[in-house]
Structure formats: structure tokens, C-alpha cells
Amino acid sequence: MIPTLRSSSLLDRQSGKRSDPEYLASLVRHADARFIVLLDHKPVIVSNEARTEAALRWFTQGDLENVDIEVVDPFFLGVERTGGAPRFAVAVTELRIRQTPAALRMLAPTVDLRSLAMQGIVSSEEVSLAGKAKALAHWHDNARCCGRCGAATRIRDGGWRRRCWACGTDIFPRTDPVVIMLVEHPDRQSCLLGRSGRFAPNMYSTLAGFIEPGEDVADAVRREVMEEAGIEVGAVSYHSTQPWPFPHSLMIGCIAQATTTDLTIDLEELADARWFSRDECRHIIEGTHPGGVTGPGRQAIARVLLNAFIEGRA
Ligand SMILES: [Zn+2]
Question: Which domain does 217 fall in, by range?
Fold first, then answer.
């Protein structure tokens, strides 16, 4: 059994306390403090030999010293609700680590978070935790200068804020809202799935798109479905959400009722889109589709929406 932190919801972010640098420093020094390492944005994991089960590798301060990783401004993920152990993430680049045998042993394997999420070999709680760290790391890489005056910014609040040294502007990590929608045919017996040219061959999923300034969720759903597939949408209902750290989106899952059925596909956006019957969707999820069509990954919200449709809960 691989030791793991089973639930990120067991972490208290302590957002009211993390602006106190002395408090944070005491947590970093805490004997129970544990750190995940993102090496070039990829989390270091431990796995069994067959790679069928894996978990994030949690480093102690001593482990990090052994591999010459200096803990400077780690990202504060929170403290465990039971026991109070502090949890952090350290982002390093391959160029900054000394490639000693110990380091190579401890820092391998790393795995791309997107494939980790797709393969489903790590618990969804740990994927979400690594996602939180990766989203922060990406933001820091892109927020080194003040958007207002151009001077350098400095990290604050355990990675949850940056401040411009020159003009004092505070900037905060951003989250981009994305609508992702399962569109039901007017007869409710089939749903609309599409494929982007970037997808693996034969993979179909629900449509999605960024919310633009001034739009509400339903407006964005209607606009995206019209733009991408030429379908008019009537009622839109909210289903569920999922943070999606590629790099920092929040997927807002919706069920949309189509009022028209003739597709006009925007080939700049989609390689294909079509209506799939409930039976076909079931085969897609079970991997038994006669045409070899595959669907969204196990931990993707698209799959949750598709399952809701299959089970008639949409
Ligand atoms: Zn500034």
C-alpha cells in the first residue's frame, strides 16, 4: 500500500492566517511539515512497479536537504484538519537541482498531471492537491512583473499573493471559468458530443468554452453551442464543477436542452460533432463502442456529465 494523503478536503487552507510570515515560517520548520515537489510543473510520485497504483511523494525537510532542494517560499497548501500537520509544495526546475544519484532516485518518477488525471492511478484528492500546486506554480511563473508599472513582484502569503515592490499593487492567482455542457437532443434520447483535432483519434467529449466578460453561465453555454455546432439551446441547468489546473480553469458543468437538431460544425474549433444515443454513450464509457469511439478520461467532469445522461439523471 502506498502511503498517501487521502483527501485534500482534509486540509484547512488557513487563508486568514497565511499572511503572517512568522506563522508560515514556523509551519515550514514544523517537524510534521511535508512537501510535494513539482519538477518543471510535474509532481514527483511513488508508484508500484506495474504503475497501476501511485501517490504523491511527500518529502520531509530532511529529504529535501538530501537532494539539495532549498525550501524558499514554498506554496502553502494548508494544515491537516486532524493533527495539524502542515503541507506545502515546492516548485523547482530541472536546471536548479543537482543531479546526484540520490536526487535522481528521489525525484523520479515525475508524471505529467494531465496524464495522471486521465489514467486515474492516483486518488482524485491527490490529483486535486497537485493541481492546486501546479496552478499556483504556473501563475507565479507568469506574474513576475507588475501589470501596472512593470516592476518586479514578490511572493507573499505562502504563494497566494504577489506584491509589486515599486507601486504596491497586490495581485492574486487567477481562475478562468469555463462552461462544459452536455447538450441533450430535443427528444432526450441522444446527446451531442464533439471532437477537437487535438484529441486522440476517435475520442469524443462534451463541448466546452471560456466564459467571456459580461456573460452569465447560460449565455456562455448558448453562445458556445451555437458557435461550435450551430445548435440552438433553450434551458440550461447547472450540474457540478471541477477545478481543472491546465493551467488554471474552473470547469462549470451544465446540462443544456437543444431546441434544434441540424448541425453546422465550426471546423476551426471542432474536427467533428454528432448525436450519440444513450446506448452508444454507454458503450463509449464501457470501452465497447462498435465504431471504436472512446470518451473522456476517468477523472474528467465530462465523464460525470455523460454518466448522468446515460443514467437518465441529466
Ligand atoms: Zn507596480
Answer: 176-310
pTM across the whole model: 0.85
In a domain, 197, yes or no: yes
User: pLDDT of 24-69, one tens digit each?
Assistant: 999 999 999 999 999 999 999 998 888 788 899 999 999 999 888 9
CATH number at residue 56: 3.90.79
Give the torsion sign (CA, 222, 227, 229, 230).
Answer: positive
Report how far ligand 1's centroid is from the alpha carbon of 243 (Å): 29
What separation in Å is there between the alpha carbon of 159 and the centre of ligand 1? 18
Q: Are residues 275 and 216 in the same domain?
A: yes
Q: Verify cis geometry, omega within 30 degrees of 0, for the bond prior to 43.
A: no
Higher pLDDT, 66 or 264: 264
Compute the distance from residue 53 Cα to the ligand 1 centre, in Å.
Answer: 46
**212 Cα: distance to centroid of ligand 1 (angstroms):** 26
Any domain includes 160? no
* Higher-confidence position of 170 and 299: 170
Q: Tell me which amino acid residue 290 is.
A: P
Specify the number of domains making up the chain.
2
> 136 CA to middle of ligand 1, Å?
20
Query: pLDDT-derived band of residue 6, with 50, 70 and 90 as boundaries?
Result: very low
Domain boundary among 84, 118, 142: 142
Tell me how many degrees the CA angle 288-293-296 measures, rounded to the nearest 5.
Answer: 95
Cβ within 8 Å of residue 172, ≥6 positions away: 160, 161, 162
